[in-house]
Amino acid sequence: MSEKEGIPPGWSYNPAAWGQRMPIVGLAMVGFGIATYMALFQLKVFDTVWEPFFGNDSRKILTSSVSELLPIPDAALGAIGYIADALTGVIGGTRRWRTMPWIVIMFGLAVGPLGFISILLVILQPVMFDAWCTLCLCSAAISVIMIGPAMDEFMASLQYMRRVKDAKVSLWKAFWGYKEVAGKVI
Amino acid sequence: MWAQILNALLGIWLMASPSILGFEKVAANNDHIVGPIIASFAIISWWESTRVVRLYNVLPAAWLLLAPWVLGYQSTTPIINDMLIGALVTGLSLVKGNITETYGGGWSAIWKSDSLHAREARKQPRV
Fold it and tell me: 3-class SS at A44?
């Protein structure tokens, strides 16, 4: 029964079900849209940036010294992060916590740093530049909201890897989802 | 979960209060740093599998109780604001709330042996 539905042993639901994953992928796509828009402003494709509350603040933030620390604008880096989240969220079937742990673990690891860097940038806005940027705050909120719902699947994959280890089966083969491992460990 | 929603709102209030109430620079900077941290930990703990993250908020909340004295705030409003939010966030972060789903033994089942998911897996027939 649970084998068919892909529910991990000891769980009451399947964290890799589409209903669990699609909202996260949707959020990542919204984040990708916002970050791409800001990156295009930073690359001077757009002359102005949308800012409903804080006047000239968004321009100040998006053209600040911090935003130019890296060879590419920081919003472009954010866009890459969001697309990585969306891709690692969408790839694989509803038993992927077991059939392809590498993608679930990559998904879990991709969501974390994006959220962390967003929070860091939210702190830097008022402290260093005495300004707020509405779209940056929206992007940060999205990246933080994505962390919680992504972690259950990550947990299921790590528990699976633990069972692989206890069964003395190759962790390497299980991580990459070798077919020969599938029958040995549930 | 309601407790962690309140904590997220308190974190966001901490971010906004320096501009709304007009705080001195040192208090404003402190609130601008601690506010997003509290809001983020609270939001992450909205979900059952990461509810444990609520406890991470005890540390920044305890700092809010000390900050006015360590950093030497001059005016009363930011002192009251920080102390009040620090006390509220500490209390609310200890509220676990309902956990309705089961998670194979949770995070600790990754490093502990013979946990729920391992016992359940043994009962299932091999393919």
Answer: coil
